[in-house]
Every structure is written in C-alpha cells, then in structure tokens.
C-alpha cells in the first residue's frame, strides 16, 4: 500500500486566489474547490480537490477563502514608548513637521527605545508580530531607525536576527530616519557616521537599507550618498519618498534600482516615469495618509505608467498605529482609488516584489509555502472581495508558513 505523498493538504477551498495567473483564472489565479499540498516545506501540488494527493495531515477548507500568506512590506514595529500625547497634539492642529522639529515624533521614540532592555524590546515585538500572524500575515518587514547610533542600531538588528519570531521577518536598516540630538549641529558628520561606521557594521545583518528623504529629514543628496553606500554593500534599496514634500526621491529610486519607493503622496510625473523604467514598486501607506489627513498619491498616474503598487500598514507609534493589513487594503480602495484586485495583489505578490522577495505572495511552483484561510464575514459567500469590502477585523482561521501549520482556530 502506498503511503501519503504529501506532508500537508488543505482541500475543498471554495475560492483560492493563488496570485499566479498560470494556475488559475484571471490575473489573481482564481481556483474554485481547490486544494494545496505541501511537502518538505514547499508547494508540491495545486489544483482541484478531486485530484488532490494523499497527505499525512489534511485540513478541510470548506467555507473559507484561501490566499497566499499576506506580506506587510513596510513597518516600524521595533520600538519602545508611547506617542499618545502627540496624537492629541495633532488633533489640536500641530503638524507632523512641527512635532518633529520640537523634539517629538521619531526622536521621542528614539529616547524610549535606547533606554529599553533587549528583553523588553523582544517581548513587545513578539506580541506585535503575533498579532500580525493571527490576521494572516506571514512576512513582515521590520525597520530599525528608532536607535540612531551605531551601537543601538546594531543592537536592534542583532535582536531581529537572534530570535525566532511568529512571522518571517525581513529587516531594513533605517539609520537615516532622523538626525539624533547629539548630531544636530553636524548633519554632515551624521551622514558620514551612517556611511563609514553604521553600514559596515549592520550590512551583514540587514536585508535592506532605507532613507527617510523629506522636508525636515534627509536631503536628496544625503539620500543618494547613503543608498549608494548601502547598495554597494549588497543591501536592497528602499526609500521613504515624496510624503511631506516633493524631493525627487522617487526618481532617485528609479535611477538607483531600488526595490521600492514608499508613501508617494507628492510624486510627480518624472518620478513616476523613473519608477516605471527602474521597475520600482510603489508602496502605498493609507494608514499614514489617514492619520495625517493627507491627500492620496496619484494612483491613476502610477497605474497608467505600469508601476506595480503594494499596500502596507506603515505600523509605527506616531503616524500610523495600524496593525491590520487587510483594513489598509480597504482604505487603499476607498481613499486612494485602488480596485479590489489591485489591493489584493498589493498585500501579496506586489508586496513580495517590494521586498525583493519574488517567491512571496503567490502560490505555485517556486513560491513560498505560505497560505492563509479566512472565514468570510457572516452572511457573505466565501469570496476574497468580501475581505476587502468589510473593513478590518478578519482573523485567520488557519495560517501555513514554510509548509507547516503555525496558527489555527476551530
């Protein structure tokens, strides 16, 4: 008698969006009555449940929507302290730039993060990432940038590398998040510190380098120097671009071949064209746009130029304390003009591309072995569109990462 041929089989999924048009209908690769098998930490079979192989562990997917593991490609999840008072200041009319220039914002979180112990930071981050997992997110990009010294930035990256987290973590070095107080009188010296001391120390531990290029943060020339140095050390390039003011950072991202340019509220036609030429993913951050009461990015122009668009939470303690990626997909549709199809691609395959991780966010031969099942809202059919129509609160019924069940509810 032949034994089971797969380690794990998820079967009878009413709607599975593979995000792989080669194995299903339409651009989202839609399958009905689908099954996915995993063997040795890889996707080993995908197709109709009637033809599924046997497996040692079988999960009934009836009544659920299946998606690849969600990817949150922009977060600032590693931090200590609270910014609740700052929230009230913004409600009273203070701008983000005013708060930052008065020593609040990023710098207040820097003080708290530097003072926190490793164990405290790890416990808090573990709890946050566990919350992402329970909402179907299997990969989270986590930036540094709340330490802003060689010793403390290195400490944060060592922490990210040394622990087993509930989700797959992609680490980004963001030493160029703000100029810390001790360097306030010597901006050029701090940029040299990043290039000559920080990057050599952190490059073996980080996956990417990012720069906050904006009014009140880093100039275009400083951004070019830091990104060029990081790219030379083998790091993937990313940039906070065109959020508060137009700086030319999106065009720079295209010129340098960065994986993503994020925010983009004030990107211009030249920046969009450069992104399209360079294959740069535009990462849309509707949580920050909402909290800052800002105008949306020019989504129609990005679409027309053929720029792939990802959607992320931008989870941070000040301008986007949002931890629900599917809620951000809804916001991207309602406030920015994405279609449901674009929003779903934005939290899966396009988000993987934004991290320069092309195996993430889809299902098929060569993909990551990540899958999530969601129950639809009560009274709704098992269709992924309902997960975007109904804003937030969608808890995963089951999460598979690297071919194994890592979270399940009844």
Number of helices: 15
Alpha carbon gap, first and last residue:
32 Å
Number of DSSP strand runs: 16
Which parts are unreliable, with pLDDT below 50 for 5 consecutive residues or more? none
Highest-level CATH class of the largest domain: Alpha Beta
CATH superfamily of the largest domain: Metal-dependent hydrolases
Regarding quaternary structure, what we see is single chain
Q: What value does the average pLDDT take? A: 96
Q: Architecture of the largest domain, CATH level 2? A: Alpha-Beta Barrel
Structural class estimated from helices and strands = alpha/beta
Strand proportion? 15-25%
Overview of the structural elements:
This protein has helices at residues 84-91, 96-101, 106-115, 118-134, 150-162, 187-202, 220-232, 249-256, 269-278, 286-291, 299-305, 325-336, 340-346, 349-354, 384-389, and strands spanning 6-17, 30-39, 42-48, 55-60, 65-68, 70-72, 137-143, 168-176, 208-212, 236-241, 260-263, 281-284, 309-311, 371-374, 396-401, 404-408. The chain is α/β, with parallel strands linked by helices and 410 residues long. The chain folds into two domains: 6-68 and 363-408, Urease, subunit C, domain 1, CATH 2.30.40; 71-354, Metal-dependent hydrolases (TIM Barrel, Alpha-Beta Barrel), CATH 3.20.20. The strands form two sheets. Strands 1, 2, 3, 4, 5, 14, 15 and 16 form an eight-stranded mixed sheet that branches. An eight-stranded parallel sheet has the order 6-7-8-9-10-11-12-13. Helix 5 (150-162) packs parallel to helix 6 (187-202), helix 6 (187-202) runs parallel beside helix 7 and helix 12 crosses helix 13. It starts with 5 loop residues before the first strand and ends with a strand.
